[in-house]
Amino acid sequence: MVRLTLDLIAKNNYLKPRKEETTSRCLKKITHIHFSDKNIDAIEDLSPCKNLSVLYLYDNRISEITNLNYATNLTHLYLQNNCISRIENLRSLKKLEKLYLGGNYIAVIEGLEGLEGLRELHVESQRLPLGEKLLFDPRTLHSLAKSLSILNISNNNIDDIRDLEILENLNQLIAVDNQLLHVKDLEFLLNKLMKLWKMDLNGNPVCLKPKYRDRLILVSKSLGRHLY
């Protein structure tokens, strides 16, 4: 077991105190921490790192999102390719702008209420049981309605994205390799998402429909040629 601790941070040369500078003061100065692909399975209390803004923890073995309540200055969080099954304990991260959770075991997009500054959410390729699809909690969608601009939901067996209509400021939707089938459902969505200028649907059954691109571009006033 490898836990992300203050001692581990110190051993990896994140602490470079100047003469007569205390460890506590040095910890407060840390803004970026890189611990990707280190077999880390848990995050311990890092509360002295009060100015942490970017945390890289992808390609590890983390199963629970814990002990990040202190990180109120965090803007970027990279947790892709871990063992996380639930989005939780993030509501105090009011400055979070980009969240990367692809390649985990998450079945429901939830627990993001209050993150009104979140601009990018990447939840592609969840390792779900056969036949299951990624779902969206309406409370989380409502909370992200005005902030979210980029959403990546690729490869999650999704067959309906009409619930995303509430994301009024969404400008990029990446939904590659899902099960989207009906052009009418997408026409409905595009009538609502007035700021969407890029949508990638490659690998969906709907792409085999005659003139589906023409129909969607005709509906959308913003999409133009950025439909894939």
- Series of H and E elements: EHHEEEEEEEEHEEHEH
What's the CATH H-level superfamily name of the domain at 2-157?
A: Ribonuclease Inhibitor
Strand line-up of the largest beta sheet: 2-4-5-6-8-10-11-12
C-alpha termini separation: 43 Å
Summarize the structure in words.
With 228 residues, the chain is α/β, with parallel strands linked by helices. The chain has five helices and twelve strands. The longest helix has 10 residues, at 183-192. The N and C termini lie far apart (43 Å).
Précis, in short:
By secondary structure, this protein is of the alpha/beta class.
List keywords for this structure.
228 residues, alpha/beta, Leucine-rich repeat, LRR (right-handed beta-alpha superhelix), eight-stranded parallel β-sheet, two-stranded parallel sheet, elongated
Helix-strand layout with pairing:
Blueprint: E1 2-4, H1 6-11, H2 23-29, E2 32-34, E3 40-43, E4 54-56, E5 76-78, E6 98-100, E7 108-109, E8 120-122, E9 135-136, H3 138-143, E10 150-152, E11 172-174, H4 183-192, E12 198-200, H5 212-219
Parallel strand pairs: 1-3, 2-4, 4-5, 5-6, 6-8, 7-9, 8-10, 10-11, 11-12
